[in-house]
Amino acid sequence: MTIKKGAQVKILIGKDRGKSGEVIEINRRRNLLKVKSINMIKKHTKPTKTNKGGIISKENYIHMSNVVSIDKAKKETKKDASKAKK
Fold first, then answer.
1. Domain residue ranges in the chain
2. d(CA 48, CA 39)
3. How far apart (Å, rounded) are the C-alpha atoms in residues 78 and 22?
């Protein structure tokens, strides 16, 4: 399954099951990806000269096997529906 940055995906497994979002980052070596507003975690950061610090929320990685491309799923359902009519 080929998923690219910017593609729309739907989450199949986990606490965000059923939600969908846009892919913002991919780690092909570990088969992981980040989806916008999905699998949010709290990160404690120390203050620096440029950063105020504190607790921030950010996306965490999800394994590619736990998502499906929405565009690909729509195409498959259209094909299945056309086969059923014949």
1. 8-85
2. 26
3. 22
Average pLDDT for 53-57:
95
What pLDDT was estimated at residue 1?
53
The yes-or-no verdict on residue 73 having pLDDT over 60 is: no
CA distance 75 to 66: 19
Measured distance CA(86)–CA(78) in Å, rounded: 13
- The answer as to CATH 3.90.120 being correct for domain 8-85 is no
* Structure token digits, residue 85: 């009519």
Q: Stretch 30-56: mean pLDDT, rounded?
A: 95
Q: How many CB atoms lie under 10 A from the CB of residue 73?
A: 13
